[in-house]
UniProtKB/TrEMBL annotation, chain A:
This is Phosphate transport system permease protein PstA. One of its GO terms (cellular component) is plasma membrane. Belongs to the binding-protein-dependent transport system permease family. CysTW subfamily. It comes from Niveispirillum lacus. GO terms for biological process: phosphate ion transmembrane transport.
Length: 439, 487
């Protein structure tokens, strides 16, 4: 194109399209074109960069939470200390005494430490809940009572963070949770080979706790599963039935028009308003319990209902009329034609829409806060009416906690949640690819 | 869990009904199925549906009403002496003072709050969780708790009896109806069609439920705080005192600072989302080669699928400290809960939403318009700016309105990244609060159900609902009108 802009031999009369002014104009227009295109690339780059920053921050912060620093101690399980009643029954053990055993073992490891403050600093190396872990071990194997055993116990949050690099050990002493003395003790433990980094099984087998070393996601994951079960049971049948009626049976009249407008508007109502609905209707009017997966599931069910109806209608619409006509021609009733022929053909599309709707519901937080699903729940819920938390709410609770250990737990919980979502969306894409039919 | 038992027995009866109906149909056909009006399965379904549906409706109604009726019966059975000894331990002096003169009326003399408290105490005792009940009142409410436990057991068994009797008699009636002439298929289809209609009205019921619950509680709120003060007042501090004689007991409920805060954050979000979303949609649909489109589209879809709580965490972990550090380097003090951080992250969240809507709108512009423009010698960007965008303008405006409505209703990002202090400012570097933040912060934690503070939440919710509804209706109208033009 640029050759056209080149000045012509001077003998020719100067045309509107070839003069100096024209060349300049053309240059400016092409520059504008390049600028515009550049803005487009910039916008795309911005969105992509943000996603990359988001994911890389989470990965950087979160992966370390899957590991836990542990310290090896030779603990003497003194039957007299843990079992003051002498019954030998684990249920009668003094649970507080396990921590004493751990502390005693630590003192033995560093015999030259004396004085109250020094001893307190030394205790700061192991987790204040290491005794709980020891208790769990003995519950599984009560025969160990009376012996001296080498056990790996969780280090304190401060030590854990230093090892993982969450806190820089070169910081001035006053700015880190671990003092120089504690660092020196810890280094000597490390030289003896008594420190290891183990896979943090607690994260998947425990529920919420005030101590990051003991906090896990099990309760939230079970809560999410129960809640999603209720959501699915509520929204899938109702959504599909509504879509079938609106798409296949509904006469075109005022009433169905209102329903349609309604569904479109409902899809755009802020999710927190659904939470208010749940609070006013399910909790206050029907008196259902707070924090229960049943109520959470009901609220989320209403929330995803419009999504499922819209997706199902699109799927039903995609089935060609010839299928219906053939069925009707064979003498099937209208309902038979729909139930036996149209609905099965639309099912892959409906399932895809449902999974996408459910993925949306899994990440929903605000409406669940309204119905009190931010309860501090230390064990997995065992029924639909038990107090429970869900993954995104657990993330929200942990994000509020000041301890450094909870920052990495939050990131790790987000990674788990994102993995859930990717799995669900992957399933939806797979379904679409596998069963998609072009007519 | 007697209700679970009842439901399982009902399901069993329904299955039995299917089997009975099917067998009966085969039996009455006299060995020739063709004599029957419908296929035997329809006779079975007919009996199964009649056995299950009325009883299920009954169970639902029963469950909805049971709690209130039982509570009323338990409370009215308490003697004034029991009530008084409970009230002396549990109520604040002021409330006790007000209660004592009318204590002879029994439980109807209690205020709503103390009635709830009493009921919670009784029900905790009834389910054997005495550790949650003040030891001083256990003696006074033990008879009521026993009564409650007894009534609950009685109610469950009564329900069981009624349900079994209802389902059984319906089975008998329908069984006797079955004959070769009986139009089972038509009957079943009528029931199923009615069920389909019922399901499609659930969407309307939800909307009605939202409107009624918000409106009902808001009206209660406006009897305590005048609506003009709520809509035009400049002071928001909902901290009502626990006792009436405390200092500063009357909260201020002027919501204007919340509205401006919400608008400020939504504006910042749109300043990020509108240009980025629009430009990326333009680039993707007009410039990008297929390969880049194939990579960027999924990236935007992932961004759209990230839960908002994750964006909130991203805001407090990365964006807010970054903005604060930049401010510190320039010598500007920026609050760590600045509107800017929340707004920018919310903008990032909305980018994929704007982009996909704008993409649809731009693709809907007919190719002939582009070709005409190129034919006149316009460059690509001139075509986009002077032909495509004006043609797509209504759709783009609609998309932006939908995006604004999302930004206004968004909760988790602002809850985590924006502040709680309601200040009337338009400075994006300061901390502001929004409608959704206030709803969340007032409702999470202990609540008292008839205080103005708790009720104010529903008024805020109503405003939120109406504003987003209006935006959506207008946006959908615009988009639809525009679509019709080219179809």
């Amino acid at each position: 194109m640029t050759e056209i802009a080149e000045p012509m031999p001077t003998a020719m009369p100067v045309s509107l399209h070839t003069g100096d002014a024209a060349t300049k104009r053309l240059k400016a227009r092409y520059a504008a074109e390049r600028r515009f295109r550049f803005y487009g690339i910039l916008a795309i780059l911005f969105a992509c960069t943000m996603l990359v920053i988001l994911l890389s921050t989470l990965l950087k912060e979160g992966t370390s939470a899957f590991f836990q620093t542990e310290v090896k101690l030779a603990v003497t399980i003194d039957a007299g200390v843990i079992d003051p009643k002498g019954t030998g029954n684990p249920a009668e053990w003094d649970r507080g005494a396990f921590q004493t055993l751990v502390i005693d073992a630590l003192y033995k490891e560093f015999p030259d430490v004396s004085g109250r403050t020094e001893k307190r600093d030394l205790r700061g190396l192991v987790s204040p809940v290491a005794g709980v872990r020891l208790g769990q071990m003995l519950d599984e194997n009560p025969a160990l009572v009376g012996q001296t055993i080498d056990v790996w116990l969780p280090a304190s949050d401060g030590v854990n963070q230093i090892v993982k690099g969450g806190i820089d050990r070169d910081l001035p002493e006053a700015e880190r949770p671990i003092s120089d003395k504690q660092l020196a003790w810890f280094d000597s433990l490390e030289q003896r080979g008594d420190v290891r980094s183990a896979f943090n099984t607690t994260f998947f087998t425990a529920s919420d706790s005030n101590y990051p070393e003991l906090a896990g996601l099990l309760g939230a994951m079970v809560g999410t599963l129960l809640t999603m079960l209720v959501t699915l049971v509520i929204s899938l049948p109702i959504g599909v039935a509504a879509a079938v009626y609106l798409e296949e049976f509904a006469p075109k009249n005022r009433f169905t028009e209102i329903i349609e407008v309604n569904i479109n508007n409902l899809a755009a109502v802020p999710s927190i308003v659904f939470g208010l609905l749940g609070l006013a209707v399910f909790l206050n009017f029907f008196g259902m319990p707070r924090s229960a997966p049943l109520v959470g599931g009901l609220v989320l069910g209403l929330l995803v209902l419009p999504t499922i109806i819209i997706a199902s209608r699109a799927a039903l619409k995609a089935v060609p009329p010839s299928i219906r006509e053939a069925a009707l021609g064979m003498g099937a009733s209208k309902l038979q034609a729909v139930m036996h022929h149209v609905l099965p053909l639309a099912m892959p599309g409906i399932m895809t829409g449902t999974i996408i709707g459910m993925a949306h519901a899994v990440g929903e937080t605000a409406p669940l806060l309204m119905i009190g699903m931010n309860a501090f729940v230390t064990s997995a819920p065992d029924s639909l009416l038990a107090s429970s938390s869900v993954l995104p709410v657990q993330i929200f609770i942990w994000a509020d906690k000041p301890e450094r250990g909870f920052v990495e737990l939050t990131s790790a919980a987000i990674l788990v949640l994102l993995a859930f979502l990717i799995l669900m969306n992957g399933a939806a894409i797979w379904l679409r690819k596998k069963f998609e039919r072009r007519w | 869990m007697s209700v679970t038992l009842t439901v399982s027995v009902l399901l069993f009866l329904s299955l039995a009904g299917f089997w009975l109906g099917r067998n009966r149909a085969v039996a009455v056909s006299g060995g020739r199925i063709a004599n029957l009006h419908s296929v035997p399965n329809y006779y079975g379904s007919y009996m199964a549906l009649w056995a299950a549906l009325p009883a299920l409706v009954l169970i639902l109604v029963w469950l909805a009403l049971r709690g209130a009726v039982i509570d009323w019966m338990v409370l009215s059975s308490m003697s004034p002496q029991q009530l008084e000894s409970w009230a002396r331990v549990m109520l604040a002096p002021v409330e006790l003072e007000a209660l004592l003169p009318s204590i002879a009326d029994g439980a109807s003399a209690l205020t709503e709050t103390s009635r709830q408290l009493l009921l919670i105490n009784i029900s905790n005792l009834a389910i054997g969780q005495a550790q949650y009940v003040n030891a001083g009142v256990i003696d006074a409410i033990t008879p009521a708790a026993n009564h409650l436990a007894q009534l609950r057991g009685l109610a469950d068994w009564t329900l069981f009896g009624i349900v079994v009797a209802l389902a059984g008699s319906l089975l008998a009636i329908t069984w006797s109806k079955i004959g070769p002439e009986f139009r089972a298929r038509n009957n079943v289809e009528r029931i199923i069609t009615a069920l389909l209609v019922l399901c499609s009205t659930i969407a309307i019921l939800t909307t009605v439920g939202i409107v009624l619950s918000l409106l009902f509680e808001s009206i209660r709120f406006f009897t305590k705080v005048p609506i003009t003060e709520f809509l035009f007042g400049l002071q928001w501090s909902p901290q009502t005192a626990i006792r009436a004689d405390q200092v500063g007991s009357s909260g201020a409920f002027g919501a204007v600072p919340l509205f401006t805060g919400t608008l400020l954050i939504a504006t910042i979000a749109m300043c990020v989302a509108a240009p980025v979303g629009l430009m990326s949609a333009i680039y993707l649909s007009e410039y990008a080669p297929k390969k880049i489109r194939g990579v960027v589209k999924p990236v935007l879809e992932i961004l759209a699928g990230v839960p908002t709580v994750v964006f909130g965490f991203f805001a407090i972990l990365t964006v807010a400290p970054f903005i604060r550090d930049v401010g510190a380097a320039l010598g500007i003090p920026i609050s760590s809960q600045s509107a800017l951080a929340a707004g920018v992250v919310m903008g990032i969240m909305i980018v994929p939403f704007v982009s996909s809507l704008a993409d649809d709108v731009i693709n809907a512009v007919p190719q002939s318009l582009r070709d005409g423009s190129y034919g006149l010698g316009a460059t690509k960007s001139e075509t986009i700016k002077q032909v495509l965008l004006p043609a797509a303008l209504p759709g783009i405006v609609g998309a932006m309105l939908l995006a604004v409505s999302r930004a206004i209703g968004e909760t988790m990002i602002v809850v985590m990244a924006a502040g709680l202090q309601a200040s009337l400012t338009l400075n994006p570097l300061e901390s502001v609060t929004t409608v959704t933040v206030q709803i969340k912060s007032i409702l999470v934690g202990d609540q008292e159900f008839d205080s103005a503070k708790t009720l104010s939440v529903f008024a805020l919710g109503l405003v939120l609902f109406l504003v987003t509804l209006a935006l959506n209706v207008v946006a959908l109208r615009i988009v639809q009108k525009y679509r019709e033009k080219y179809d």
